[in-house]
Amino acid sequence: MVATPERLKYEVKDLNLAPQGKQRIEWAGREMPVLKQIRDRFAQEKPFEGIRLVACSHVTTETANLAIALKAGGADALLIASNPLSTQDDVAASLVSDYGIPVFAMKGEDNATYHKHVQIALDHRPNIIIDDGCDVVATLVQQRKHQLEDIIGTTEETTTGIVRLKAMLRDGALTFPAVNVNDADTKHFFDNRYGTGQSTLDGIIRATNILLAGKTIVVAGYGWCGKGTAMRARGMGANVIVTEINPVAAIEAVMDGFQVMPMDAAAAKGDIFITVTGNKHVIRGEHFDAMKDGALVANSGHFDIEIDLEALKHRSSNVKTVRNFTEEYTLKSGKSVVVLGEGRLINLTAAEGHPSAVMDMSFANQALGAEYLVKNKGKLTPDVYPIPTELDQEIARLKLQAMGFTIDALTADQIEYTNSWMTGT
Predict the structure, then answer these.
(1) Is 223 marked within a binding site?
(2) Cα torsion for 257, 262, 267, 270, to the nearest 10°?
(3) Is 36 annotated as a binding residue?
(4) How far apart are CA 89 and CA 108, in angstroms?
(5) 16 a known binding residue?
(6) Dihedral of CA 49/51/52/55: which sign?
(7) Can you list the alpha helix ranges (DSSP code H) found in 154-262?
(8) What integer is the mean pLDDT of 226-236?
(9) Which sites bind substrate (predicted)?
């Protein structure tokens, strides 16, 4: 049995998986040079000394490198999963055994266990919450008001979580500052676009081993995640249809060369459907009724409610597992609809999530966002704050440097020109 630090509480699937997990964490770390530089600085400066920190995130090799950096900075850190199916069990085991970080996460945990882990995280009485989807913060605000005085602030990783935080702020329920990591340029331009685009198709291919070339793929939503998914699907030879509710995003999709139509029209045309909207019931009962026999349905938005699975179950006479993470629903009409990953994040359910090189910048934002909150304790009013531009730019500079690229700098004459309103053409 792998030894664990004394008195460390945890709940993982199997500690004997730790050696494999450690190898994978170290492999991912090779692709995360920005976070490594931040970790090295944290180890010297200890910005989180005396800070209790809870991270609710997908327990992957990349998240492990973030957790290790936070602990190096002095944080009393605890990690839980942000999704019941996204945990990599060997990584969770290694974080406990090799790094002494308490983890409460198991791949395939049921909803009751997931919510129990949220409560365990709040039992840690965090000062800083790093959230992915806002479940920990929402539970705190609704059920643990007596702990609000402990909170310095929170950072949020996802579009879904930012929507919830802004709703809390609008309702007067947000009583502490929140840092919007999701909308940092070095996050959504790369994580949401290149990360989601590649990893979503990776998950679909691993779950089905299907050829994408020649298929018609319907992408619901043309935000940054939808842009990346549509771009990569076209790159694999698919014919791509985009559905949208935002007329500006729809025009952009048209000008990017994609067909655009309502889901009611796309439902009969698609071979594969991918939801990336952050909303609920984007694919509904009437859409299942219109789909081709054998249509595949997958979600890469944060929550599984993007696909109305209850409506599908109501229409079905039988459900069977045909491959790992692949369930075939036989409709009462006789045709079938195949759901991947139980409607949860397909890139993390059936694959390994975003590539490490992309998450390097996202988690650099998380680390620096948390440090920003600590440095500004008591100075920030309750609000949803963007990542400071100087931090965003520094992350991009470090990433470029690590990739071996350099860029130009403004000359003194150019700086004078850009700061002057008196010089014209």
Answers:
(1) yes
(2) 10
(3) no
(4) 10
(5) no
(6) negative
(7) 159-170, 185-187, 196-208, 224-235, 247-255
(8) 97
(9) 60, 132, 157, 187, 191
Question: How many other CB atoms sit within 10 Å of the CB of residue 7?
Answer: 5
Strands 316-323 and 326-331: antiparallel
- Has 60 been labeled as part of a binding site? yes
The string of pLDDT tens digits covering residues 159-193 is: 889 999 999 999 999 999 999 999 999 988 898 89
Residues present in the chain in total: 425
Bridge-partner residues for 345, per DSSP? 299
Q: List the Cα angle 370/376/379 in 5-degree steps.
A: 135
Neighbouring C-alpha atoms within 13 Å toward the C-beta of 395: 26
Domains 15-187+354-403 and 194-349 share a fold: yes
| H helix runs in 46-109, sequence order | 61-72, 89-97
- The separation between CA 206 and the C-alpha centre of its own chain, rounded to angstroms, equals 19
CATH topology of domain 15-187+354-403: Rossmann fold (3.40.50)
Structure tokens at 409: 């700098």
Contact (CB, 8 A) for 53 and 127: yes
User: Is 157 within any annotated ligand binding site?
Assistant: yes
Neighbouring CB atoms inside 10 A of 410's CB total 10
Contact assessment for residue 350 and residue 299, using Cβ atoms and an 8 Å cutoff: no
User: Was 159 annotated as part of a binding site?
Assistant: yes
**Sheet containing 128-131: order of strands:** 103-104, 76-81, 52-57, 128-131, 153-156, 178-180, 384-386
Residues paired with 316 in a beta bridge: 331
**Domain assignments of the chain as residue spans, ordered by start:** 15-187+354-403, 194-349
Residue 187: left if φ>0, alpha if ψ -120 to 50, beta else—which one?
A: alpha
- Give the predicted TM-score (pTM) of the model: 0.87
Beta bridge partners of 296: 272, 338
CA distance 244 to 423: 43
- Contact predicate 288/311, CB 8 Å: yes
Is 160 labelled a binding residue?
yes
CATH architecture classification, 194-349:
3-Layer(aba) Sandwich (3.40)
Q: Does residue 1 have a pLDDT over 50?
A: no
3-state secondary structure string across 154-171: EEECCHHHHHHHHHHHHC
**Was 327 annotated as part of a binding site?**
no
The reply to whether 6 sits in an annotated binding site is no
312-349 in b/e burial notation, b at 16+ Cβ within 10 A? beebbeeeeeeeebbbbbebeeeebbbbbbbbbbbbbb
Mean predicted confidence (pLDDT) in 293-304: 93
Determine phi and psi for 336, rounding to 5 degrees.
Answer: -125, 155
